[in-house]
Amino acid sequence: MIRLWTHECMRVFADRFLKDSADDIGKFIEAMSQVMRDHFEGAEWAEVMEDIDDERYGPIFCSFMSETTEILPYEEVADYSQLKQCCEDKLEDYNLEPKLINMNLVLFKDAIRHICRIHRILMMPRGNAMLVGVGGSGRQSLARLASHIAGIGVFVIEITKQYRLIEWRDDMKRLFEITGVSNTPTAFLFNDTQLKEQAFLEDINNILSSGEIPSLYGKDELPAIYDGVRKRAADAESGGTAEELWAFFVDSIRSNLHVILAMSPPLRP
Q1: CA angle 206, 207, 208 (to 5 degrees)
Q2: Distances from the Cα of 119 to the Cαs of 63, 64, 67, 181, 192, in angstroms?
Q3: What is the pLDDT of residue 69?
């Protein structure tokens, strides 16, 4: 139980730290060690992490190792070799999908840890992620593989020379139809090289904060949305007025959509 607590603390806080001379992770471990001594009967970090390969990374928990039960257990990985084999099998399954582009990945330890982190976020209600790394570091490939493991489709936009706000808004309508009307869990993978206009970022911010983009739809487009969600809304007993159907549509988007931003770190002088 203490290991699970440390794992969740590290996912919520430590995953946001920079690896630099400030040694934020070291300071964080010191703070957690003090909390452990105060609240877990004098438990020591070194003792709790005694059989962990690298105590600065902590234990690994995931929910895709066991496939024999309907409810997948969120459990600690006791055998890293089994986890690696599982990820390699999932990668092979991904590459066998006819509609997906093959990925030739080397799944070293850090990559597998990142897959577990991204998968954890995707399995959380309204979980979103920002992956920071230089181009070619595997941010998007690992996000695709983690989405495949989670059984979630990936939505990406195709940038062209003529791609502007109009095309962006059309893509957002398609994304909202997939997640809000068709009720399909989807990861929206977006990277900083696709940021053609500042308005894209504003729309993403609105999606993350409220689940909708102001003025995205014209009045003539709303009846099709209402009709698309009416049956599910009736089954959920959420009401049938225009306001209630729109609220149900937005709630479906927020429940099914996971935004994954793949960003590059700022250049240092």
Answers
A1: 90
A2: 8, 9, 15, 24, 21
A3: 64
Burial of 187 (0-12, 13-18, 19+ CB in 10 A): buried
What's the pLDDT tens digit per position in 43-97?
888 889 988 888 888 899 999 988 766 777 899 998 999 999 999 999 999 999 9
Share of the chain above pLDDT 70, in %: 98
From residue 106, alpha-carbon distances to 11, 76, 92, 112, 138 in Å are 23, 23, 12, 10, 10
Other Cβ atoms closer than 10 A to 95:
15
Segment 29-34 shows an average pLDDT of: 92
pLDDT of residue 68: 67
Query: Mean pLDDT of all residues in the chain?
Result: 92
List, in order, residues 6 or more apart from 62 with CB less than 8 Å away.
Answer: 74, 75, 77, 83, 116, 119, 120
| Contacts of residue 113, Cβ cutoff 8 Å, sequence gap at least 6 | 57, 60
Give the integer Cα–Cα distance in Å for 172 and 177.
8
Under DSSP, the state recorded for 100 is S
Q: 223-236 burial string, b = 16+ CB within 10 Å, else e? A: eebbebbeeebeee
